[in-house]
Amino acid sequence: MTEPSSYLTTTADAYDAVAGLYAELARDALDPLPLDRAVLAAFAELVRADGAGLVAEVGCGPGEVAAHLRDLGLEVFGVDLSPVMIDIARRTYPDLRFELGSMDALEVADGELGGLVSWYSVIHAPPGTVPSYLAEFRRVLATGGHLLLAFFESEGGPVTAFDHKVTTAYRWPLDELARLAGEAGFTETGRMLREPREDERFRRGHLLLRKAG
Hints:
By secondary structure, the chain is an alpha/beta fold. Helices cover 37% and strands 27% of the residues.
């Protein structure tokens, strides 16, 4: 298995190298995806119903999902490993806060957040490290806080590496990722699995979770 420090450096460098092009492609990426927008809207409604609270988008890239969450009425900030991505996000959305950092060591106090979104960001984590990410997400969420995971689904197969256009990523069985989240102290609120569009290779999985007491 790749050592965590090496994997983080590789991921950051890979996204730095393509940040400009990635930001261009990502800017309107949610527009043709009604089901994806619906999951984000459901997450935002759940957070607001519990009195809102600060929300983190981890692995935020150029910031388009964080901005979408802001437009849904949430107080949100973004965190990413890539310095170039963070610079782009800050320039594009100057009204939002973006921080350089790793989502396995967030500079957030225990129980500080009302919600956390990992939108296709744990996909690059070696499978054996994913429980540590889930543990960190649980640490920073308040009891009852909401977690949204979006990822590439493995279509019934095991966890599988694939040639993501930026750097190595992994497809997950929906049930397996839900099981790990349960072991980390989350209860499932709901899930959404959608088929790939013509310009996509894989099914997309989404898990709405809540930090258990």
